[in-house]
Amino acid sequence: MNAPFSTPIAVETAALLARVGVPAKAFHGGDRAVRSPITGEVIGEVHDQSAADADAAIRAARAAFLAWRKVPAPRRGELVRLLGEELRAAKADLGMLVTLEAGKTISEGLGEVQEMIDICDYAVGLSRQIFGLTVATERADHRMMETWHPLGVVGVISAFNFPVAVWSWNAALALVCGDAVVWKPSEKTPLTALAVQALFDKAAAKFADAPAGLSSVLIGDRAVGEALVASREVALVSATGSTAMGRAVGPVLAARFARALLELGGNNAAIVAPTADLDLTLRGVAFAAMGTAGQRCTTLRRLFVHESVYDGFVERLKRAYASVSVGDPRKAENLVGPLIDKASFEGMQRALDDARAAGGKVVGGERVEAAGEGWYVRPALVEMTAQSDVVRRETFAPILYVMRYRDLDEAVALNNDVPQGLSSSIFTNDMREAERFISATGSDCGIANVNIGPSGAEIGGAFGGEKETGGGREAGSDSWRAYMRRATNTLNYGTTLPLAQGVKFEI
To answer: CA distances (Å), 149 to each of 105, 142, 375, 488, in order?
Structure first.
């Protein structure tokens, strides 16, 4: 092993990758260095692929799809069941890889892998429940129905903050729906993607007749992602990332009439009502705002507290912010790990400077000294007098803007007065307030919760948001329909040919 891989964290990473089945040549000697945000040290050197490599993978996926679509859906579910079993067996190793490469705490890393296992279980059940409707027809001796068929090649573009779970939300459903999957992970977290592909390969080997190219990983920069988006062989692209990324991806897909499943920005809010259980609220706000170092798309970024409880609650919240442990996420006592890189830290500092310029009072936000070159920061709480431009702009870091409100109408309007529309919540014991918040005149987000924070969604519900969040839906409910094409069928089992709407055409 050469010198850059002699550090303890690099040795640990290599051992984990070997145990899940990734060959050393896949993460040694490549042209892209992978650094752990825990120490800033290099833990791998992966080999970038080109646009031509992407085209080859897409062609292989298209050939795999043509074979896979013929396999009965419950049989396709068996492959996903085997994948879930591989994930269960490797949960500890893959969870630690998530921690080492993305900087999540041990609990969060394991939780992300559990989410993968859960969606596999969900998809296995779904494989026996893909069905359409029988539709009432106005014509005698006819039957009308809808059927659902595999769509094609599904491209998945994922972000660093959930380096493996987002792939599974898409892949588990796409596979049971009869599709092939090509995955372009974040340039910042390619090692976990290689690990997941190795586990998929183990499951496919046990399945025996999965076609080659059914699942593949493309390591590389923006050019690889652009090739995936531009290819006419890719029927659906599920892209998770910034709103700016979505603005680039969306028009390309629209121009070739492909499907887009976009999971973009989130500027999530919570309302603390006068009747809220403040002990429960404090715990809910703390995790939602500080968990994953503020690097979840569902992270709580705006908090509206009723003026009658504002002073006491915010004082308690400040104490929680001052006491939370920040440091190496491998240590159980630390609840907040590092930011992904220096650029993230600098973006956070710019936002805090803008908040101060707008009259905000900032507590926290300073860098925390740690071993190595990791970018650890104390979560920031910023009291604002109004929802200014900096508040309405998403900053992917642990910043919580706190504001007072007087009545529910004002709070709901503030909740909705941002370009993004992903997640939201209200803490209240007033039934009318709770019902209003989740009604058509309440939150305009794709997720609206009561007495839990906006962060930490389960896989059973459809995940996604409105407005600049992109409108996509992944995981549970009827999200599977995005990965299939619908056909409406009319069957005439009579001897006459009546036309709809009473039209006559006699020859």
So the answer is: 40, 22, 47, 11
